[in-house]
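Quick one - inputs below.
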Amino acid sequence: MVDILHRIGVKAPLAEVYSALTTAEGLAAWWTDDTTGEGGATGGVLQFRFEEGGFDMKVLDLAPNEHVLWEVIDGPEEWIGTHIDWRLERADEYTIVLFQHQGWRQPVEFMYHCSTKWAAFLLSLKSLLETGQGAPNPNDVRLGNWK
Amino acid sequence: MVDILHRIGVKAPLAEVYSALTTAEGLAAWWTDDTTGEGGATGGVLQFRFEEGGFDMKVLDLAPNEHVLWEVIDGPEEWIGTHIDWRLERADEYTIVLFQHQGWRQPVEFMYHCSTKWAAFLLSLKSLLETGQGAPNPNDVRLGNWK
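Output:
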């Protein structure tokens, strides 16, 4: 099993970052415009849609302003059963986001792509909370022949 | 051992991407302004310097327009002995860059940071080759309380 790891510091309060990870409105502003569902309660399901498909995530764990854990229950075969883990903490004037996309079965080329893409979306999250403007799909950074 | 993986597609010829990875001038234009040394011959050493320190890389393997492999021989303790592996291939109108920073001993928080930072620098490499303008240190994207 292999994991994608990222860390980013956001100059915003813990509660604002947590809200951007647990509400459809917040998620839509940095990941994909087409986000629906319930991210604020354990057992809730979030639907993320892109032109080329999407993901459904089940909320497995929540600790307000500290932790969010999702399981991928629908989407690309390589993603199903993997976990997306978000830990939040304060350091200096930043909310630090420690991100893991855990449990890839193999380090396939699609995993390389998703690693870079997650970084671009974390920069979108940072931008949203620091400037009011994220870069969610469909206006996200395109990485080449794979979107 | 754990690895950082990334993939990016650059709308530029293989030879231009290879040059940006194997010449001090090319590396300086997307990673750090302060790059010196010899990246175009096996056994050569490249010195990358940032305000907060830097890295020395020994070139272990080169296959023109296909592969570049470095070993970190000086720098942060967590980096020493790790390998940076670049594979290039064509897909559609893109040169695909498959990047690995291999052999981290532990998934420490610094590794999370470096993963996101590598993605930002790969976007800088892409921008350099597609627009003529990269974002090397000291004008790179800052990720928070860790640069």
